[in-house]
């Protein structure tokens, strides 16, 4: 036999995870994200990992690829919907760029029971090819706290400090109260709270332990802040940093009191916050907004998995009756024409139609517009939506908007 045959690669098998896979998967993920294995952090991850929703690619006895999803709900305009929270995606460096991610993403989408999926991308160029659209943005802030004043308090702030673990039930109550009207915020089961409040050496990354205060309003606790600090001195002067994990406030009093507190922590000069919404009140409260030093970045990527169910599940701010011609290479059952009929005061319907289309787009554009933070007009200006019926774009673009900008307060 000659040696002219090309070596053909055998497709590595993909299977559903089992509880016994965890340690190998955890090592794979720590390595993929360039961290040293931390057992405490791994145990918290394990508690939220859902093996039956995990896909593992194996090469012999070794796990070389993994992708999973958390079963959580997501606040969307006017509703809360089940959303697969795609997470823990990694491929071994020895097996990269051989199509493992591609196959796992396709299988995951095919098996997904939820109408939408959401994720944070480690690199923003990865997930568009799988139909995920850029749906929410965030502002990362490095606030020069000595330069920024907030409006003066009219009464003494009632803040109560405690350990995050002891305060957790109160934090959860405020979070759940605020969440419904914040597109991009995810439901948090108990195990997710434990994960959120994780405080191992890996979580700290050289900073202090996680600290917490709650704000006591007239009707009870109505806000909280979670943060770490790191002390440092420059030229003999204090120059410490505050790393804000989360600020959740049900009203302006609580919001102001918490931010005044964070900006006033002694011996610190910079307050870092990575999850500000593009409509963050701080932008309009700070005496010198430029000193917030904001950097614009992507937050959630959304994939419409079931066009009919997804578009009917959210609310719309204006009446709309529009036919979309949708393409979807990965999930062909989404392809074709869909009529969306909606008004602000009633649930929307989205059904198949043979009527002529008003707008044509790939499913990726619907994901980008889904949370109300990316307008259809912006997508059309970028060539991602085609207007087939003059006037349809402007009407639909307004209807798809929302009064709050979407953002996710946590990386999952
Ligand atoms: C990102 C990662 C999972 C990709 O896995 P992979 O198996 O190498 O990806 P695939 O070979 O299936 O690539 C699929 C496509 O995506 C592209 N792609 C994958 N990762 C990419 C990246 N980081 N940057 C640019 N393109 C990328 C590939 O070029 C390929 O493109 P093509 O379909 O046009 O050929 C892997 O590189 C990894 O584990 N990275 C570190 C951890 C990480 O970032 N995980 C993602 C968390 S959100």
Provide a concise account of the structure shown.
The protein has 412 residues and is an alpha+beta fold. The chain has helices at 22-32, 39-48, 100-110, 164-179, 190-196, 201-204, 252-263, 282-285, 307-313, 363-369, 376-381, 392-399; strands at residues 14-16, 55-59, 62-76, 79-91, 116-119, 133-134, 137-144, 159-162, 211-217, 220-230, 233-234, 237-238, 240-249, 268-276, 294-298, 301-304, 320-327, 336-343, 346-352, 359-362, 385-387. Bound molecules: coenzyme A (COA).
**Global mean pLDDT:** 96
The radius of gyration is: 23 Å
In DSSP terms (H or I, runs of 4 or more residues), the helix count works out at 12
Question: Helix/strand/pairing class, anyone?
Answer: alpha+beta
The CATH superfamily of the largest domain appears as Gcn5-related N-acetyltransferase (GNAT)
Q: What's the CATH architecture of the largest domain?
A: 3-Layer(aba) Sandwich
Q: Identify low-pLDDT runs.
A: 1-8
* Tally of separate domains: 3
* Global shape: globular
Strand sequence of the main sheet, in spatial order? 1-2-3-4-5-16-6
Q: Class of the largest domain, according to the CATH hierarchy? A: Alpha Beta
Q: For the record, give the distance between the C-alpha atoms at the N and C termini, rounded to a whole number.
A: 53 Å
> Which hetero compounds are present in the coordinates?
coenzyme A
CATH topology category name of the largest domain: Aminopeptidase
Q: Work out the helicity level.
A: 25-40%
Percent range for β-strand residues: 25-35%
Main sheet specs: 7 strands, mixed
